[in-house]
Amino acid sequence: MSSVNGRPSWLPPLPPPHRGRALIAVGLVLVIATFIYIFIMSYVGGTHTLYTLLPLATGLICLIVGLTRRNEGR
Q1: pLDDT on residue 70
Q2: Orientation of helix 21-44 relative to helix 53-72, angle to 10°
Q3: Which of 12, 15, 21, 28 could form a disulfide with 73 if both were Cys (CB 3.0 to 4.6 A apart)?
């Protein structure tokens, strides 16, 4: 048996390499899209309701969870 076949059993398992990256990407898309929508609607003179804050809050939550997951393994 060669030593390159696998990890020794006494080593702890490695965390996944891209932990939290999808949540960070989704959060950034939601936050940026919400701000663009708010700026465009304000420039045009349209109105937006408080429901506009739901994607913003969802995006911020995704960003926070993604960033904390990313730093969990360190």
Answers
A1: 77
A2: 160
A3: 15
Query: CB of 28 within 8 A of CB of 63?
Result: yes
Q: What is the pLDDT of residues 45-71, one digit of tens each?
A: 888 888 999 999 999 999 999 999 877
How far is residue 72's CA from residue 64's CA, in Å, rounded to a whole number?
Answer: 12
Q: Which residue has the higher pLDDT, 19 or 31?
A: 31
